[in-house]
Amino acid sequence: MLTIPVAPGGEILCELIDGHIALVTLNRPEKRNAINAALAQALDRVVKWTEADERVRVTILASSLPSVFCAGADVTEIAAGRAADLSTADGGFAGLHVARRSKLWIAAVRGSALGGGCELCLACDMIVAADDARFGLPEVKRGLFAAAAGAYRLAKLLPRNLAIEVIATGHDLSAVAAHAHGMVNRLAPSEGVIDAALALAREVAACAPLAVRESMNLVRLSTEKSEDELRAISREAAGRVFSSADALEGITAFREKRPPGWLGH
Questions:
Q1: Active site residues
Q2: Which of 15, 114, 198, 233 makes a 20 to 30 Å CA pair with 3?
Q3: Does residue 112 have a pLDDT over 70?
C-alpha cells in the first residue's frame, strides 16, 4: 500500500493498493464529507492523477465515515455565495461529475448517499454498497433539483417509474432495492464494503488494461451514439486492442496456462 500525495490538504486520502488500485477516500468528517472548494479541487487533481498514472487500472471512491458517504454540497459555501467554487472547469461538480475518464471507478458506499453524494455515486461506473445504505435525491424538497446529472443518470439505471418516484418525491431508496433493480452491483455488511469493493476492483485489475479502457469507452458512448456510430468506434478499438502487446500476451498466457503479465499497450 502506497500513499499518494496528490491531495495535500487532507480532504481526500489516496492510496495505491496492490500496485494497480487507487483507493480514494473522502475525508471531511466534521462536515459529513460535504463538498467545498478544497475537496472539489482535490478530487479534480485525483481524477487527473489516476488517468495519467499507468499503474492505476481501477479507482475506488470511498468515505472515511461509516454513517455517510457524502452529504452533497456544503450549504455554508452556497449560503456565502460560493456555489460556483464547488465545481471545477474540467470535472464539474466536486471535480468528478463530468470529468473525462478512460478508467473505471467504483463507489464504495456506507451510510447515506443523498443529493450530491448520490450524484458522485452515479458518476462512478459501478457501486458496492452496505446492505443498510441509502440513496436519494432530496433536492425537490428544498425547491431545487439534482443538477449534477443525478436526475437523468438515475433514470438510466432504474426502471422509469421507480426513478420518477425517487426523483419527484425526494424519498430515499434502500441499497437492497437499488441492488434488486441493477443500480448497485454488490451488497455487503457495512464493515465489509471496502473489502467487497477491493474484491471487485481486483477482478477488473486482473484484466488487460487497454481492453478494459476501450470497452469502457464503448459502454459510456452506448447511450449517446447510434448503432452505426458504435460499430465504427468498435472497429477502430478492435484494431488497437487486437494488435496490442497485451492481446499477444493474453493468448500466450492462456496457452501456457499461466497468469498474464499485462503491459497496458
A1: 119, 139
A2: 114
A3: yes
